[in-house]
Amino acid sequence: MENKQNWLEYDVEDMVAGDKDALWHHLKPHKCFETQEQMIIVEGKGLVVKDIRGREYLDATSGGVWSVMVGYGRDSIADAVCAQMKKMPYFAGVYGNVPSIKFAKKLLEKLPNHDKVYFSNSGSEANEKAFKIIRQASHIDPARKGKYKIMYRDRDYHGTTIGAMSATGQAQRKEGFGPFVDGFIEFPHCACYRCPYDKTYGNCNIECARKVEDIILKEGAENIGGLIVEPITAGGGILKPVKEYYPILQEICRKYEIWMIMDEVVCGFGRTGKFWGHEHFDVDPEIITMAKGLASSYEALSATVVKQKIFNTFLNDPTNPETRLNYFRDISTYGGCTSALTAALESTRIIEDENLVDNSVKMGAYLLEKLETLKKYDVVGDIRGQGLFAGIEYVTDKTTKEPITEGQMAQLMGNVMAEKVIVGRTNSSLNGMNNVMNFAPCLTITKEQVDTIVAAVATAIEKTF
Ligand SMILES: Cc1ncc(COP(=O)(O)O)c(C=O)c1O
Predict the structure, then answer these.
(1) Ranges of residues in the chain whose predicted pLDDT is under 70
(2) Does 5 reside within a domain?
(3) Residue 49 belongs to a domain with what CATH number?
(4) Do 381 and 421 fall into the same domain?
(5) 428 and 450 together in one domain
(6) Is the pTM of this model over 0.90?
(7) 344 assigned to some structural domain
(8) Within this chain, do residues 244 and 99 fall inside the same structural domain, yes or no?
(9) pLDDT of the residue at 1
(10) Tell me, what's the pLDDT at 334?
């Protein structure tokens, strides 16, 4: 007889001790656990999570990193995954499987200008694939010979692996990991609140985009194959470029045959009030990467989606017929895992059937309106956002825009948490500039929940300053 174990059972004290003894947590200085207990999340329903001590929190972060789009406790995702796992749990992506075919078709329906979908497991990996595609193309396509360098923007984040970090514009986050990969070039960001060129929108000629051409020419356009951006910068502080920005950037990229990679890891799947973040702009990137909201993080999945002309570079590899590959030399063991694809199919069905992108528009506008009321506080310097993705930039002085310290930020966050609300923040990423609190709740959020979140932040501001 099968020996059935109930993996949902646990002893509370055993888990608390086990957490301390066995786990190495992400981004956590473990010294704090000498005096305080780690929060262990055990349950979730909608936007509410419960910890192992029975305390409930309203989660304004969609799982801490902006990814549980459809909320917690979706039985239909669990049921679909269970059925698929029983039928066929896994086979390597060198062969086909039904969920990956269905989901690739769904993605292409959502991206009508794109033609091929390559699956992997994480946002970092999806971006690594994009870089590898550009690099391999620079070897096999005579028209792209030597075009191996990738440009990236200050304040953007593209992942945790060494390649993806080499393409990340967050200096503090990169400390201690160098030397980085050759051939990655940074360019200034496009944040009007702190314009890198000291200009004011309306009177700036969109310098932040136009100057990219100077950097390309200085580096040598013949060496540059790609340029990666987040449609709206997430971890770097919720930065939405002005509407003219991407069309100018795209024109420059096309002039020099530089493939634009749009990193939709955070913004995709309705987060910003359109299905894709880049749909807010008149832009048509050659490569689009995505993860997080893809399967609402019920399973790990990412994708790199390209236009036909890029796929054709590999299909029609014109190098020596004796030695050529005719394929993209890359593999990802879990990319295309059937259960992740099934979770993605069901999560996307929920987003569509429950009109969650519309809710992101409506509740996003309401969230921004409510956050604007916090401008009455001296420490609230800027409020910005799009859809259900918003940020507050805290300053000590509204005129000088001097950021509050990371210590003050940590204290403020603790005070929000004391109100039983979880919000996010820039975390040791940008030297002296970790002063943005962010909000990215599940797309199912209600008005009352928005009110609770904003009230908790107001109370925390009053307690802290
Ligand atoms: C814009 C962006 N790209 C890529 C990544 C990396 O994704 P992952 O953590 O799944 O590797 C992140 C993670 O936060 C991100 O915010």
Answers:
(1) 1-2
(2) no
(3) 3.90.1150.10
(4) yes
(5) yes
(6) yes
(7) yes
(8) yes
(9) 59
(10) 92
Atom of ligand 1 nearest to the CA of 291: 10
Closest of 183, 165, 163 to residue 174, by C-alpha: 165
Instruction: Examine the domain organization and report whether 367 and 227 are in the same domain.
Output: no
CA of 234 to the centre of ligand 1 (A): 9
Q: Please classify residue 436 by burial: count the beta carbons closer than 10 Å to its beta carbon, then call 0-12 exposed, 13-18 middle and 19+ buried.
A: buried
Give, using CA atoms, the residue closest to atom 13 of ligand 1: 159
Condensed to tens digits (0 to 9), the pLDDT of residues 52-82 reads 999 999 999 999 999 999 999 999 999 999 9
- 180 Cα–ligand 1 center, Å: 18
pLDDT of 323 reads 75
Counting the structural domains of the chain, the total is 2
Residue 415 lies in domain:
12-70+358-464
Residues 175 and 273 in one domain: yes
- Asked if residue 421 and residue 295 are part of one domain, the reply reads no
Residues flanking ligand 1, CB < 6 Å:
65, 122-124, 127, 157-160, 230, 234-235, 263, 265-266, 291
Q: Is residue 7 part of a domain?
A: no
